[in-house]
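For the sake of transparency, this paper describes our internal protein records without simplification. The remainder of this section carries one protein's record, kept here as part of the documentation:
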Amino acid sequence: MDQIRLRALAKINLGLDVVRRRDDGYHEVRMIMQNIGLYDSIFMQKIDSDEIKVSTNLYYLPTNENNLVYKAAKLIKDEFGIKSGVIIELQKHIPVAAGMAGGSSDAAAVLYGMNQLFSLKLTKQELMDRGVRIGADVPYCIMRGTALSEGIGEILTPLPPMPRCPILIAKPGISVSTKYVYEHLHANELTRHPDIDGIVAAIKAKDIHGVADRLENVLETVTEKEYPVITELKDFMKAHGALNAIMSGSGPTVFGIYDDTAIAERACEELKAAGLAKQVILTETFHTGRD
């Protein structure tokens, strides 16, 4: 195999709880991770020269070691002493810095691609063990599907697939620093926590309404105060047929869960017309294997 094409799937958080801030500064979390049908496209090709060449369709993204796909390729090359190089062409469709693990998913895809291109025969778990060196979300992005994430995000428990349903995505024209959000979250003072176990039970029961009723993200306590547009987007989706809507990750992306495709399509068009978000995308839950 000299070349490979891959899809790097976006994720949403059906529930995001921060259990506590540890003495070492890290935050312990309990999250329900779910892939959706929105994805970045990645083309990889082996080359004779000993270099990593990254290109992307977004002019403002780095193409050197500051890009996670470069780091992923270099990690594998260095560990296994690979003298051949690789071309990586990255077509971004997942909103950037949006709480949807776009960069982590791209890195996960490149780890998978390097494993395939150079016939390393690493297992999924072995790839996940390497992925955590790049970022806390990378192991999940290698696993894919529906999962409970615990610890600092590295302890993953696969869950049954969430029922397939329309998901409306809205990314406002702002950027949110994950570091800022966690630094300003008073984790040990939170009086309310998401019903993560209830979400797990609803997923196992294939109860989409049970999942939607329990959507909750404690990071909204920081981000919504700074950016009222997040509240506006949530309210807009719920007023236009969403079963519920919350922020994904540290934001600023908001997603709504629907149980009717026609209603979701109409809400998508109305949200675009309202001008509340820079990017509005209608997709659905996604839980099959890697392309």
Notes: The chain has a mean pLDDT of 93. Residues 129 and 139 are 7 Å apart (CA to CA).
